[in-house]
Amino acid sequence: MSEKENKGITVKKSDNFSEWFTQIIGEQGANLVDIRFGVQGFIVHRPWVMHMLRRIYDYLEEEVEADGHEPMLFPTVILEDNLLEEKEHAGFMPDVFWITKAGSETLEKPIALRPTGETLIYPSYALWVRSISDLPLKGYQSRITVFRNEKATRPFLRGREFMFFETHDVFRNHKGALKQIKTDMKIMDKVVWRKLKVPFIFFRRPQWDKFMGADDTYASDTLNPDGRRNQISSTHDLGTNFAKAFNIKFRDEKGEEQLAYQTCFGPGIWRIMAAIIAIHGDDKGLIVPFDMAPKKVVIVPIYKKEEENEKVREFCRKLEKHLKSFNAHFDDSDHSPGYKFNHWEMMGVPIRLEIGPREVQEDQVTLARRTRKEKEKAKLPFLKKRIKAAGKEIDTDIEKNASSYFKNKTKSTKNYDELKRIIKEFRGFVKTPFCTTKMAGEECADKLKADTQGAYVCGTPFKNPDRPKEGDKCVVCQKPAKSIVYVAKSI
Ligand SMILES: [Zn+2]
Questions:
Q1: How high is the pLDDT of residue 1?
Q2: In angstroms, what is the span from residue 434 Cα to ligand 1's centroid?
Q3: Which residues of the chain fall below pLDDT 70?
Q4: What pLDDT shows up at residue 6?
Q5: 25 C-alpha to ligand 1 centroid (Å)
Q6: What is the SS3 string spanning the chain?
Q7: 414 CA from centroid of ligand 1 (Å)
Q8: Model pTM above 0.90
């Protein structure tokens, strides 16, 4: 692309987040996806984003394996009968793509492209689980995609084919299942907050908003800059519902047959990527945690006089080799230094080294960090150490920014008119007293959604939820409040 064509991002994130997001993921931004594939909701992932997505998978795989999960790979297709086996889960039907033909022959029974893994995996689990010694059974599938017939699609937020990761666990009792839900929350904390710096709240969803076939759903929500919640994971307490449907039973110590308890955990790979782009990025482009960056260092030569250029170039080449462990890249393209600065800032490369004749002469580099304005000089013998330290500083900057961003995104009110006004004007969560998150509260949630043009009751935080004070009334129906819930619009 010529310098003229590459306009960069032309809108401010704070002015028009939606357009900013479209621009940053596209060709005029960081070139993460190609949406010209030609089938709605199916997109091409380009190399830069693939490197980052693979890091997310790496982190998750490491954590779930440390927690005793084993890798598995199931086929992409599900038998129709299995998909319908669990009564409530059959509610997925409108979202399912079907294979109905093979060559010119019409299949006797159509087969579904997996929309998620439960009905794909549990018929096998029924064969594998025999006795109490088979439990707990913990398996996961990674680096796969699933298919859903979504109407409105957007890269990383909603797709007809999107990246997937799922664990599926079987326990002898409910206690084991509940313990796993806490572990899943800890894994989210370790990977998504501590490594990727994406802040979120781990909610227990209201009963009317749980996964089809689950007893309870726990989900992590972060917020996009436009105030819409982005669900980045869910853990489902499946109780014995699927065990009943698929006959997952074991013989206990007394030799009696028991139904198994199950959980499944799905961090949203795409959604986490969307949150990293949306929350950390700025008007210059992507900002990513140091370890996640496909290239951690870019080397930009500043050529001054023709006779010195080869010396500078030679120095840069050596530097690139020296910094191979950081995937350093020497940008020797014909573009101007200013163009290169902008380009690599757009791509979110954490560290830029500027090399001119002076740096060569003094055996040092000028180091710039993606998250800070000031530059510094670094002597060559200490450079690797300095880069590592700068990487940590960049992560601290990202974490601080994300933390204060998220802290300022929650307001509270007990008044319905004020709640409606806040939802309209303010971008974020609103904490408010609510009658109940059991099924009886659905009517109030529906009214709230209608009155606010689409705000959802996200639920109550799993960890340290606020309790209603005496006299607190449901913000909608004025009955005594049993919960303090979070409300937000959704993507
Ligand atoms: Zn109510």
A1: 45
A2: 6
A3: 1-7
A4: 57
A5: 41
A6: CCCCCCCCCCCCCCCCHHHHHHHHHCCCCCCCEECCCCCCCCCEECHHHHHHHHHHHHHHHHHHHHCCCEECCCCCEEEHHHHHHCCCHHHHHHHCCEEEEECCEEEEEEEEECCCCHHHHHHHHHHHCCEHHHCCEEEEEEEEEEECCCCCCECCCECCEEEEEEEEEEECCHHHHHHHHHHHHHHHHHHHHHHCCCCCEEEECCHHHCCCCCCEEEEEEEECCCCCEEEEEEEEEEECHHHHHHCCEEECCCCCEEECEEEEEEECHHHHHHHHHHHHCECCECCCCHHHCCCCEEEEECCCCHHHHHHHHHHHHHHHHHCHHHCCEECCCCCCHHHHHHHHHHCCCCEEEEECHHHHHHCEEEEEECCCCCEEEEEHHHHHHHHHHHHHHHHHHHHHHHHHHHHCCEEECCCHHHHHHHHHHCCCEEEEEECCCCHHHHHHHHHHHHHCCCEEEEEEECCCCCCCCCCCECCCCCCECCEEEEEEEEC
A7: 12
A8: yes
